[in-house]
């Protein structure tokens, strides 16, 4: 059979880069609350919702990005050394192309790939714990499943996506729409319920025949009458604890969060054991994307960092972490946790374990505006995952002296020790003075003693004579 011929217009559209741009995703929505929320239109989103476009240098010189019209060089090539754009509107009312820079997510992806971090399933990290959470790859065969995966039939198989919605995360409008969908498909659901009831009766018959020592090959197929099926439905309606697992299995719904302790004594619809690949998904909902989000496809962190001089190392080269919010009070409120930025990702200090070797400093304890670019310190990333909302969660430990020594990194990070550490008695030496030669110490001591006299003489020379 000859292939269907395409018209010139259809062939042009198939090969056009313009029509290859995927549809934009839905922007992340904030949780409904009565408090006032200050939002910014220019803030970086937690995850990209539009594709990033690049063009060769030969086409960039002409402003050709494969779109309907060329883009101006003043906003693309002249503004950045690596121009990357995302199209907001292809053709506006003013006959222009609305676009913006896409370097925020693109550079963050490149920085993350330089960390050589495998993606893990999300897990809780205690602020006071000294043990790193266990790495579980989302690419394992018994975890990387959806509702249509053939691997669900294996024992102990988990999945990260169900065909039904997560009821705990739905609004009232969404729940009403889902209820109408269930009512519309009631005949099909009753047919599936009848098949599950027949399978249940068959399993009970096999179990009874096996206990009695009968031959299982001579068993006849189970036949369920309409009266028996209606009686089964009435028994489920009278017992919420038995109806809950049946409804979750019939509609393929993710397991609901745990029932509060004050509701245990009352009747409620119990959900079956979770089939989700991570326990965090039970409390916060299934992930909106794949648990890896396409950031990395490495399954383990079993890598050896071979130093050219000192040989294999237990830690990779530490990376710089910028202090975004120091410890202490923030906007008039007490905040004991600091927020740092690692590779363009905000890291909460609660994910950093408290076990720190001697030699690491508390650079994020105070805010020092005199440091160019902000205060920084060295960290070692250990775990990375994506939560249910598509946000990257990075867990890192402060780099110890052992991890920084082979690379010649200063043991005192980028900022001097705070005065509180010296008063507390953790360091018995004066900072910076011990790192200077003895000649410089004597010179600085003499200058500090003679400096008040110099200031006094300068003040007297600049004094204005009194007028009579």
UniProtKB/TrEMBL annotation:
One of its GO terms (cellular component) is mitochondrial small ribosomal subunit. Transmembrane segments: none annotated. Pfam families: Mit_ribos_Mrp51 (PF11709). One of its GO terms (molecular function) is structural constituent of ribosome. This is Mitochondrial ribosomal protein MRP51. PANTHER family: 37S RIBOSOMAL PROTEIN MRP51, MITOCHONDRIAL, SMALL RIBOSOMAL SUBUNIT PROTEIN BS1M. It comes from the Eukaryota. InterPro entries: Rbsml_bS1m-like. GO terms for biological process: mitochondrial translational initiation.
